Amino acid sequence: xxxxxxxxxxxxxxxxxxxxxxxxxxxxxxxxxxxxxxxxxxxxxxxxxxxxxxxxxxxxxxxxxxxxxxxxxxxxxxxxxxxxxxxxxxxxxxxxxxxxxxxxxxxxxxxxxxxxxxxxxxxxxxxxxxxxxxxxxxxxxxxxxxxxxxxxxxxxxxxxxxxxxxxxxxxxxxxxxxxxxxxxxxxxxxxxxxxxxxxxxxxxxxxxxxxxxxxxxxxxxxxxxxxxxxxxxxxxxxxxxxxxxxxxxxxxxxxxxxxxxxxxxxxxxxx
Length: 271
Known about the structure:
Blueprint: H1 2-5, E1 13-18, H2 24-38, E2 43-47, H3 52-64, H4 68-73, H5 78-92, E3 96-99, H6 106-120, E4 125-129, H7 142-160, E5 164-169, H8 187-193, E6 196-201, H9 203-206, E7 215-223, E8 230-235, E9 242-243, H10 246-260
Parallel strand pairs: 1-5, 1-6, 2-3, 2-4, 4-5
Antiparallel strand pairs: 6-7, 7-8, 8-9
């Protein structure tokens, strides 16, 4: 993904979109873990869907490489508890700041970000989960209110000189094949303001017979400052994303194409 996008623009609005249960939040958390826990950079995660405890449980599972359902069950051995303890310590010493306040407006996010920057220094990235749960304020139409929000977030990115990443829901009714810009709710506003739009897609959620079981596709649908449109294929063991090799991804995509469009058998000739 880094090779495809060359990283996030410091003055950019980045949108991560997809249907429910596709893995948007996990993908967002993977980005934040890389920046704040692996590199120790200062980041802000605004979670309007999950509580801080739920977010942190996911991070412990991710960093400790422990299955999330195993953690929930409490059926853990000494090695698991050791990895949990180490993961908690790494998270506490990281640059990750999580807010779980609900229905925040752009103004409230800006105020929190300014205070955080004054106290902790430059913010590397602001992540918001998700657009539909924000307070968009009053406007004559819903699309106008949404546009005011995305425009405000774009301005916040410029003011703080850091990328603002926002998660957005796709419209299930318009899904046909792989997602594209027209699948976004309020797509015209988002398309106008976003610098980068990436869809998180799991074909097995749509088609149970797919050959792409266990595979998450990160589809770049828009890149204002480049031509990085394309797809990256990932697997997801123990709550973390792992990239597939070009050979693995290519074979699975070929199998899927052959399943959907089986090659025609040549007719035998009679002599």
